[in-house]
């Protein structure tokens, strides 16, 4: 059911199925809430609140950061707006504060679309679609993008949900991340190398408590089983858990323990972000997707709570 309200996040679209509910909003096509039964799985935000720390946002056509907003693609140099001025970076793409349009809706699913116009710094016209659905298997998002331009376009994609286990602190949360390397970042949170994680404090290849570890960490060389990679947050005192899964298009996981957030959101939940490419991929070309003219690209991810 659609509820049109005078809210900062725009129109609110709700879906329900199998005892679950979710709300996706017009601004950014953002996932604002997701609950299983009466339990909030997503650490979201209110309808009249700006998405805090990118909560639930879609990050495209690049995830994470680009150093100085400068990159060269196919021998042409580009300059993006510096949307993280304190660190002199371009961050989280170009679609997260735009108004998305409803294409279709059923009680348990909805599809939103956004036409990203060619612009200074990113002169390619793309059409993005995201289909959100609920079933007994949880929340699923199927994303599609089409390059409407007459030339190749650089592309990367991620999402930014914060997950929580009711009554369980971040310190006590048991985390499992199937990644064998991590990207080392500088003071601007930009990559300067990669190192193995086995045997280090960042090794969550076997589930264990987060403890007081500060995480804003990109994991690479991730494991996919039957075409799917999963990150799990679990309650050590019960069998409760939340799983974020992503298909083989996603080659990295970003895990953020919320230590740089302020007030009540400080270390309250864990952001688990599947990413198709690492930070600064527009500059390095690492795992960057190149969309040919007319090419259609798709990927799927989801949450089980």
CATH architecture: Distorted Sandwich
Q: How many distinct helices?
A: 1
Question: Approximately what portion of the residues adopt beta-strand conformation?
Answer: over 45%
Q: How would you classify the quaternary structure?
A: single chain
Low-confidence stretches: none
Secondary-structure element string: EEEEEEEEEEEEEEEEEEEEEEEEEEHEE
- Helix-strand makeup class: mainly beta
Placed side by side, the strands forming the largest sheet appear as 11-12-13-14-28-24-23-18-21
Number of strands: 28
Separation, N- and C-terminal Cα atoms:
22 Å
Shape: globular
What is the averaged pLDDT score? 96
Write down the Rg.
18 Å
Our count of domains comes out at 1
Largest sheet: 9 strands, antiparallel
Q: How would you explain this protein's 3D organization?
A:
This protein has 305 residues and is an all-beta fold. It has a single domain (2-304), classed as Beta-galactosidase, Chain A, domain 5 (Distorted Sandwich), CATH 2.70.98.10. The chain has one helix at 281-284, and strands at 2-3, 12-17, 20-25, 31-36, 39-40, 58-59, 65-67, 70-73, 76-79, 89-91, 101-106, 109-116, 126-135, 138-147, 153-155, 158-159, 162-163, 174-176, 179-185, 191-196, 208-209, 216-222, 228-234, 241-247, 252-256, 270-275, 289-291, 296-304. The strands form 7 sheets. The protein has a 9-stranded antiparallel sheet, with no helix packed on it. A 6-stranded antiparallel sheet has the order 17-26-25-22-19-20, with no helix packed on it. Strands 1-2-3-4-5 form a 5-stranded antiparallel sheet, with no helix packed on it. The two termini are 22 Å apart.
